[in-house]
Structure formats: C-alpha cells, structure tokens
Design brief:
The chain has 6 helices and 6 strands; from the N terminus they run H-E-H-E-H-H-E-E-H-E-E-H. The relative contact order is 0.16. It is globular, with a radius of gyration of 16 Å. Helix content is about 35%, strand content about 30%. The two termini are about 15 Å apart. By secondary structure, the protein is α+β, with helices and mostly antiparallel strands. A 6-stranded mixed beta sheet has the order 1-2-6-5-4-3.
C-alpha cells in the first residue's frame, strides 16, 4: 500500500489490518508500530501481535529489559528458550530467544496493555570474519507461543522484505 509522501507506514497499518485476515496469525511490526490501538485491532480481528520495543513506548521497553537482565535464576528457569544458527554469505549468526509469560507485574505497571500475554528477548550474535556484533531486541506479545515460534516470527518479515 502506497502512503502519502509526507506520511509513513503508521497511517497504512490500520487500513491494512482491516483488509487482511489475521485470524490465528502472529502479526509482527517494528517499534514504530508498537501502539495500543494497533495491538488491540489485531487481537480484535482474531490474531496475535509480536511488537518490537524501542524508546517510543514510555517506560515499557526499560521495564521489559530490566526483567530479562535482573530476573532471579528461578524466573529464568521458567522461561521458554530457543536458539538458532545460520551460516551463509560469509557470516555466522546465532539467535537466542527467551519468552516469559509472567505478566502480572507488567500489567500492573502498564494497565493499558490489556492483551499482553508474553514478553520476548532475542539476542543476536553476528560474526563476519573476526568481527562479532551483538544485539538484543525486546518484544511484547499477545501470544502464548514458545520462544522457538517467536524467533521464527521475528525472522519472517526479513524473508519477505528480501
């Protein structure tokens, strides 16, 4: 869908969600699309969301990051985890996913996130030659999926774009 020249995809996403059948699908959107109205529209239409977090959601990204970095070992042991390894085009990339459904604390801090059922941390380690580039991204989701399925869902848009 083409957007106006002075616009961006945020204006198109709500309209697209009206056209697409998202029932039983996991809809992934980058951090720009991490908005309450989009999340609720996806859930209302029978789908689940997996939305990237960045600094545009008040203190939600910091809360999720703190959870994954400061959780006691007992909480970490209850998380769903998965790992993938990709080799090709002169690079090696390892992705580790962790998914938690321990949401009561986060829903208390962010009552606007009514459909939130899980949070995800994905750590990527890309090696090209001798250079290793680590990155950690955080997501919120309405899905009660596994870390393995979340890793796959995050990679799917990349395969579509390319």
């Amino acid at each position: 869908m083409k957007t106006d020249q002075k616009s961006n995809e945020i204006t198109a996403i709500p309209e697209l969600l009206g056209w697409l059948n998202v029932r039983r699908a996991i809809v992934t959107i980058d951090a720009m699309g991490c908005q309450k109205n989009l999340a609720e529209k996806i859930v209302h239409r029978g789908g689940d969301y997996l939305l990237a977090l960045k600094g545009n959601q008040s203190n939600l990204p910091e809360d999720v990051e703190l959870y994954f970095t400061l959780s006691p070992a007992s909480s970490l042991a209850k998380m769903s985890t998965a790992e993938t390894l990709d080799k090709g085009h002169g690079r090696i990339e390892i992705r580790r996913g962790r998914l938690s459904t321990d949401m009561e604390w986060l829903q208390l801090r962010h009552p606007e996130c009514q459909s939130l059922n899980s949070i995800v941390a994905i750590e990527s380690e890309r090696q090209v030659g001798d250079t290793i580039s680590p990155e950690t991204r955080y997501f919120i989701s309405s899905s009660l999926t596994t870390a393995s399925e979340a890793l796959a869902a995050v990679r799917f848009p990349w395969s579509l774009d390319n």
